[in-house]
Design brief:
Blueprint lengths: L3 H10 L24 E3 L9 H5 L5 E4 L4 E4 L9 H5 L5 E3 L13 E4 L5
Antiparallel strand pairs: 1-4, 2-3, 3-5
Length: 115
């Protein structure tokens, strides 16, 4: 038990091991290579379905008949393969955290007809 005395003293008189979140913020707020949520630009989308085919968690569904793209945030693992595969750059990364929620509804984007 004598080996525990230095550890006990360090824990008693040392600072906290983590930051005190509500009072202290981490700087910088975002980590390097951060992959947050993404946005869909309906004007650029051509409903090719590459994002749906390459999504490993099947979080994106493209419906060509109704001209909609549906994204399920509970299935999404935020790998951004869909963003990287979008040839027309209709999916763009947004550098911000997704807030925690008990209920996450599916997001449906309506794609307008091309002229």
């Amino acid at each position: 038990m004598p080996w525990m005395i230095p550890r006990i003293l360090k824990n008693l008189f040392g600072g906290p091991a983590t930051i005190r979140y509500p009072f202290e913020k981490r700087e910088p707020f975002l980590f390097e290579n951060f992959r947050g949520r993404f946005e869909h630009d309906s004007e650029k989308c051509d409903l090719c379905g590459d994002c749906q085919r390459l999504c490993p968690s099947e979080a994106i569904k493209v419906d060509e008949e109704n001209r909609t793209v549906t994204w399920d945030p509970f299935k999404c693992i935020y790998c951004h393969i869909c963003v990287e595969s979008c040839f027309h750059q209709a999916l763009k990364p947004v550098v911000e955290y997704t807030l925690p929620a008990y209920v996450k509804k599916q997001v449906v984007w309506q794609v307008p007809e091309k002229k």
